[in-house]
Structure formats: structure tokens, C-alpha cells
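User: My collaborator sent over this chain with a note saying "see what the structure looks like." That's all I know about it. Can you take a look?
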Amino acid sequence: MRRRDTPVVAALRSTLSALANAEAAPASADTDTSTPESVHFAGSARGLGAAEVERLTNTEDQQRIIVASEIAELTHHAERLNTLCRRDEADAARRAARVLGGLLESADD
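Assistant: Without extra context I'll predict from the sequence alone. Here is the result:
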């Protein structure tokens, strides 16, 4: 971030979002019929925290799979950009993939 390398920062943010999304509870888990609905908003639960659902916890292996998927997506994107002769953008995508790859390698140590 200090280097202001926008593509790398975007890739890191995207990866963090993917990790956070993987920990989201399934949609069926938040339908609690024991709590009465609020009269003010349709479909909402009455009471503070009544609609809260426990988030899932990913294992390290699941997190590695998500990061590896982001790396593969960046690599594929870089190849497509290269075929479109957008070499600067392709280089930026490859650089971001290398940074994420470095994170995976450092986690292995």
C-alpha cells in the first residue's frame, strides 16, 4: 500500500473479501421462525441481535484454496490481457498474483 501499487492492493482486498465471504453463513441459516417479525419492516426480526447468525470458520486448507483460486483467476486475467495487447495491465495482474503467491509460500514456512 505504501508503494501505491493499485493492482496489488486491489488483489489483496479482493482476496480478503473472498475469505470473508467464505465465512458467511448460508442463507437458510438466517431464517429463524421462532422470533416474531417486526411490525415496522416486513421480514425483519424483532429485538436486538435477533437476526444474528454465527459465522463459519474456514480451516487453513480452505483459506489456501481460496487464495490459490484468486491467484489462478489473476493469472488467467493476465493471459487474456496479454492477448489483447494490454501488456501493462497484464504485468500488473501478474505482479499481484506473485504477491499472493508469496503470501501462500510464507504461510507454509
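A starting point for your reply to your collaborator: The chain has two domains: 1-23+58-109, 25-57.
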